Amino acid sequence: MDRLTSMAVFVATVEKGGLAAAAARFGISPAMAGKHLRALEERLGMKLLHRTTRRRSLTEAGRVYLEHCKAILSAVDAAESGARGDDTTVSGMLRVTAPVSFGTRCLAPALVEFLQAYPGVRIELMLNDRVVDLIDEEFDVAIRIGRLADSTMMTRPLTPYRLCFCASPAYLAARRAPRTPADLGRHACLGFAVARGRDTWRWLETQSPGKSAVDVRLSINNGEALRQVALAGGGIILQPEVLVDDDLRSGRLCRLLAGFEPPPRPMHVLHLPDRTLPGRVRRFVDFVVQRYAASAELPGSRSARKRESRPGPARKGKTRGSSGR
User: Full-prediction pTM beyond 0.85?
Assistant: First the structure.
């Protein structure tokens, strides 16, 4: 049997969760897919998969061999693509993890453009605000916000991530808007819960100990949920600009404490340090870096809006408007 085909069947069996799905991917029978797997195991002299009546799981040797197979198949794809001068051969499953707000507001809509450019790629995007282990959880790429811990991951910087204070007109109608962080002690503040006993407002108290006490009466671990509470008049939130941009533009929320926002948080795209990086991963990382370059502004950020509002040279004819955790 062709060894590369057997490797591809093995990878597909793991990624798709079974022989039947892998067989359908290559237009062969499940029995033939099983023969490809047995051929690999016989050649290697070891088991690659634990087989039970309900599922198949990787052995330790299978886990190591899987990564080598992915690298080899990606190298073959890259060689063929380079020979043809054609990127359409970039294909396969790409697993990406990103923070919820950035992933929802920025990354997910951008994926349409990437998938149109590389129709052979399939993407599984998982959004959560915890730090994901790329190796243990088998992700190809991660977007991370905040300072990075020392690691062996390859990183590339993206545009900084900015937060802002805001509240609804209905909330502010019954209270005087805060002029300084010290005024927040008289307001209902809504916190983003990042861990037990901690939230996004803690940074303010560390900047001015004893002067900027914040009474967080409600903490939620989801930015969109906090946005909804703020829209309902529940209090002041400190959330990413990209999450509340439309509300600020429409007047549903009002920006507060301009100039007192937290420093911009660094943002990076990460991937495993693999010399034979799969073409789909390489293309995706380049796409993200180009779209969210470190020197650029995220759609909806205050700096980006200032540039958009600057008058430019007069143009004849019709013009089209542009729209940008």
Answer: no
